[in-house]
Amino acid sequence: MTHEDTPHPQAAAPAPAPSRVLDLDALRAFALLGIFLVNVQFFVDPGMIVNQRAETDALGDVVNAVTAAVFMGKFYLLFSFLFGYSFVLLWDASARRGANVTRVALRRFLGLFVLGLAHGLLLFTGDILVTYALCGLILLAARHASVAAARTTAIVLTVVIGLGVLALAAMMFAMESFMDFDSLVAEEAGGLEGLLEGPYLHLLLGMYPMTLANVLFIQGPVALAMFFVGLAAAKSRWIENATTTRLRRILIVGLAVGLPGAVATGWLQVYAGSLPAELFAFGIATLTGPFLTAAYVTALLLAFRSGAGAKLRAALAPAGRMALTNYLTQSAVMALVYTDYGLDLGGRVHPGAAVLICLGVFAAQLAFSAFWMRRFERGPLEGLFRAFTYWRAPSWR
């Protein structure tokens, strides 16, 4: 080795620890499963899109309640947290390569925006990628925020949104004596029944503006709050520095606050059956959901430190490395199974059977992801997305 080939230790940038990368990838795969189980409800029961749940048997009600309590409003928070965490890693990696980090981030968000539009207009109206792209611009502007400022911003956003929704729900409860909100919802749903009865593509095109507004202005601020939590966690190297004792404390607090909120949310969304009740459930989920999400994260991180947990992490991580491919594939599978794109089974599959189908599809995704990632460095869509982000020819190896 010549003198010019000798590495200079002081110039070497520290690479992320492999364990941290595996933890993040495994958590991302876990988030994909939770999001899948929530999204499938809108295919199994298309009336949910217009706030009209179809009647089912007692077991179906239990499945829907458990899904609402355990998964709904929890896993998009986890995915958002990981998005904020990964943003810091992307920023650091781009800086080490000498790239224009702002330009790289902007191209990344533009790519997400375009993919999100296609996803929402062609596959699933509840797309989250457009929201991530737009909220990502705020995260980019606030990238130099301190850990304390990022945490404070997250807390303020969450509390303001949660209390605001609870106040609105309380006001609607008070007005129920002289205003029939259920009739208003039914009237709105009646005006949209033609969309439900027509081709799925017409439903997507007709519902997308309303759904996008709901995602942007209701879910968006909550997702942005979790972006800032992820930003603060990555800057403080939370995963690397968290001790077992600290993780256990967070787990206990998360369960103590999150579980009662989850039970209340599940009951209100399935059994209460009114617009004010659903709003009240969303307010509770906004305030308590982050605690249960934190419990999920800490429980998994603790599990990953054991021998069996390390095997679970290794099984999940490949799917997390190609999360974009798997997320869009899940929507494609749901559209093919439940709409006139394919089998058109929407409204004819029991909620419990739908959960089993999701688990089977996810198991297949784990197997395919492991097969793919043993041969390639990045997933099918990830290779194209990276090429656009860094403005270079696609490469998967």
Automatic annotation (TrEMBL):
Residues 234-392 form the DUF418 domain. The keyword Transmembrane applies. InterPro entries: Bact_Transport_Assoc, DUF418. Coiled coil: none annotated. The keyword Transmembrane helix applies. The chain crosses the membrane at residues 26-44, 65-89, 109-142, 154-175, 207-229, 250-268, 280-304, 324-341, 353-373. Keywords: Membrane, Transmembrane, Transmembrane helix. PANTHER family: INNER MEMBRANE PROTEIN. This is DUF418 domain-containing protein.
